[in-house]
Amino acid sequence: MTDTSDRGGPGSPIPDDADVMSRDMRWFTYATGLGVRVEAEAVPEPRPDTEVAPALPEAALGDRTPLPRGTAELLERAPYPHGRADAPRARADALGHALVAGFGLQRREPENPFNDHRPYPSVRAKFPVQVLVRDGRHRRVLDLYRHALTGVGRQDGAAGPLEVALAGRYTRLPDSYRWFRSSLVGLELGINLRQLCLGLDMFGLSGRLRLPDRDAAGLLTDFGLTPESEWSLPLTVALEDGGPSVTAAPAERAADPVLDGILTVNRAQDFTGSAAPLGPSVPAGLPQDGALSWAEVLWRRSAGRMPRGMYGMTGRRRPVPERALREAVSWLSVPPPGPHLAAAWEELRLTAVFQGIEGHADGVWHLRDGRPTLHQARPGAAAELETHYGYPVTPYAGGDIRHASAVWFLSAHPRRLVDRLGPGGFTAAQYAAGWAAQGISLAAAATGLYARPARAFQEVPTRQLLGLDPDEMIVCAAITGTPRFEGLLCDLRL
Asked: Could you tell me which of 453, 483, 463 has the C-alpha nearest to residue 411?
């Protein structure tokens, strides 16, 4: 493959016609030199999309520890954004409430083919990231439909600190996503990390984050997550003093060449150093008017609605007050925890297409030093973006970009990431982008908008519209707008 970026050439370092399922792997190879075969003839045909891994790990057959009830009521009494819930005295109950606050079921929309809603989005509502807890002898997985922590993996471990781990299963997403599952799970790990930090913060709990190193695969064995080649390395948050104690695991290879390529990316992480304090997940400077509770904000979180069992999202164009933009910018000012993710965060560039936002011209904007700066006045840019969106409007689905108030894009230069953080920087950028996307989602919920994280934009024409560099990769986008449809909501909160 020809690399022209270092010579100032006009072309991208990866083929312009690279398909969306292999594009990120090509960026990884360009940035690191660690080759991954992405030619169609090198891989088997994908299984049907109905053949995916189960919602919980197969090893989740152990005893159940019920989670406390009443989390929604506690959050109702916590004003958004700076109020906090009354934390129970018992640490186990506080953690239980924190997990329900961060990840618990919210509602069911009977007309929506993807149920049920949680306070955060997921590809096809598959929720490939598992929330795992280990406490001395016990290893458990968050089991929302049983409102419990269910035993999984080893139950005879040595005493150790109370920890929460996040691990994603690639095979929970359909085979048709191919290598793209690597990036999608990485983004969802960043989304889940922000929700974990938010839940802990709501109930007065602190912790320290450890990113994966070369020994982190031992945690997969400890939790009984098999086959290990289907799982990402975990992100771990220790709630008590002490670090993770695991036995180093040998490097894995997968028989499936697609999964083997995904593992090449994920196992390139080797983040060393001490675990880092979590820090804030909510911006400090937001005004508090008392109109909303945290329960209401988490309940409102939506990726957009459609009527009568249709897929996708649609909205209605309307003037949006500047407060909605200030809210999003504030949430985007909070970096993820720890020096490695903070460095990846610094390498992300934020570009947005605004439309109908009070005091801001329609067009392309950059976020610099926490302030939107006009890059190009371009009325109709949102409608142009819709032509580059991978899910066109049809009689059966909505892909409404032309009415969006803001479409946010997070991009990065892959080689700069790797130069600064090593090969693991590629994945760290996805964690950081997922963290940012969830911030946009919560800001939208607080201001009456929907927010849909997306990776479905065609990269080359979108990059040209936004004025990005040829060697710049779009890591994630988030579409925000005013919902067009309303309907029955069934409350699932506990």
From this structure: 463
The H or E element containing residue 368 is strand 363-368
Residue 158: the pLDDT is 65
Mean pLDDT of the chain: 92
- Token pair for 288: 């508090």
Give me the pLDDT at residue 463, please: 97
Query: End-to-end CA distance of the chain, in Å?
Result: 54
State the pLDDT at residue 9: 37
Cα separation, 269 vs 427, in Å, equals 8
* DSSP conformation class of 10: S
Phi, psi (5° rounding) for residue 206? -120, 165
Pick the closest to residue 450 from 485, 489, 490 (CA basis).
Answer: 485
What is the phi-psi region of residue 422: left when phi exceeds 0, alpha when psi lies from -120 to 50, beta otherwise? left
Gap between the Cα atoms of 104 and 117, Å rounded: 9
Q: Is the dihedral of CA 360, 469, 188, 432 positive or negative?
A: negative
What is the per-residue pLDDT for 8? 32
pLDDT value, residue 5:
35
Which H/E stretch holds residue 297? helix 294-300
213 CB-contact burial (10 Å; exposed 0-12 / middle 13-18 / buried 19+)? middle
Q: Which residues lie closer than 8 Å to 76 by C-beta, 6 or more apart?
A: 293, 295, 296
318: region left, alpha or beta (phi > 0 left; psi from -120 to 50 alpha): beta
CA geometry: angle at 461 spanning 431 and 2, to 5°?
80
Query: What residue ranges of the chain have pLDDT lower than 70?
Result: 1-10, 40-41, 157-159, 242-250
Specify the 3-state DSSP secondary structure of 283.
Answer: coil
User: And the tokens for 106?
Assistant: 């919210």
The DSSP symbol for 229 reads G
DSSP string, 46-71: PPPTT----SS-TT--S-EEEPPS-H
CA distance 269 to 214: 7
Closest Cα to residue 169, out of 112, 224, 119? Answer: 224
Q: H or E element: which one contains 261?
A: helix 257-266
Q: DSSP H helical segments within 291-380, as ranges?
A: 294-300, 322-331, 339-347
Please report, for residues 35, 183, 234, the alpha-carbon distance to residue 210 in angstroms, rounded to integers and kept in the order given. 27, 20, 9
d(CA 240, CA 159): 12
Amino acid letter at 8?
Answer: G
Q: Which residues sit opposite 371 in a β-bridge? A: 368
Is-contact 131 103, C-beta < 8 A?
Answer: yes
